[in-house]
Amino acid sequence: MWDAADLSALIDPDLPGYALGTKADLSQIGGLFRAPYAESFGLVSGNDPVFTCLLATAPANGAGITINSIAYTVTGHKPDQRGMVVIDLEKQ
Amino acid sequence: MSQHVASQIIAAVETRLAAVASVHIVPLFAVPLENLPAILIEDIEDETTQALGPGPVQEIHRLSFEIFGCIAAVSGFQTTAGTLRTDIEKALLAATNDVRLDGLCRPGLSRISAVFRHDAESLQKPVGGWSMKFVCTYQLKTDAPDIAI
């Protein structure tokens, strides 16, 4: 398990992709936003956005979160068992 | 340079479908998610089923291709995909001239199968829709593959 200092270092604002996510209750959480290139069926191109943040404050599945002015819905959680979680995002 | 009858048929299909949504021959390039809904034509296959001699041989061809009515939607996915399928089938099968593509193929187009394809995990939004296999028969002579007979 990471301690609080570890966790804050892992999502430091200086890291590439750092962003603040605004949850439905308007509280903000820091995390690392990634949207790598992805394809479906080998025919449709786009990206596959994910947000890495603290598990304790992560929005639940189905909840909304706004990152970089784009509203997303959380569609999946991938916890790392050490206090962090990668959440899958779907553009609303 | 004249187009082969098979290319003329694909072009005629594209023209009719362009009234429904943007049409892309894939996978030369992947279609951006932002450009959906779109109609994707793939797996084009032209088979010579019969050759009649002598002289410039008269051939009967079976041309098949998949038409994928692809949408991206968070809600109402099934309904939107179904509507696009309906519009595609109306554009190609509603009238005799459409079915025969103005005489390019006889007896004409038919949709022999349809599969619902859906991917909710890879991209920003769920994408997919109905993928329909169409076949048609056309004839030509080998000395004039740009003229349907």
Structure explained in plain terms:
The complex is a heterodimer of chains A (92) and B (149). Chain A has one domain: Beta Barrel (Thrombin, subunit H), CATH 2.40.10. Chain A contains one helix and eight strands. Chain A has one helix spanning 4-10, and strands spanning 18-23, 28-34, 37-40, 44-47, 50-54, 64-67, 70-79, 84-91. Chain A has a six-stranded antiparallel barrel with strand order 1-2-5-8-7-6. In chain A, strands 3-4 form a two-stranded antiparallel ribbon. In chain A, a hairpin with a 2-residue loop joins strand 6 and strand 7 (70-79). The longest helix of chain A has 7 residues, at 4-10. Chain B contains three helices and six strands. A five-stranded mixed sheet of chain B has the order 1-3-4-6-5, with helices on one face. Classes of the chains: A mainly beta (92), B alpha+beta (149). Chain A binds chain B through residues 35, 38-49, 73, 75-76, 88-92, and chain B through 26-27, 30-34, 36, 40, 42, 68, 70, 72, 74, 117, 119-128. Strand 4 of chain A pairs parallel with strand 2 (31-32) of chain B.
Q: Specify the overall morphology of chain B.
A: elongated
> Taking Cα atoms only, what radius of gyration of chain B do you get, to the nearest Å?
17 Å
* Largest interface, Cβ cutoff 8 Å: A-B, 21 and 25 residues
Number of helices of chain A: 1
Largest sheet of chain A: 6 strands, antiparallel, barrel
User: What name is given to the CATH topology of chain A?
Assistant: Thrombin, subunit H
Give the overall shape of chain A, derived from the CA principal axes. Answer: globular
Average pLDDT of chain B, to the nearest integer?
Answer: 91
Please state the CA-atom Rg of chain A, rounded to the nearest Å.
Answer: 13 Å
Strand % of chain A is over 45%
Major sheet of chain B: 5 strands, mixed
Low-confidence sequence ranges of chain B:
none
What's the end-to-end separation of chain A, in Å?
33 Å
Please, how many helices of chain B?
A: 3
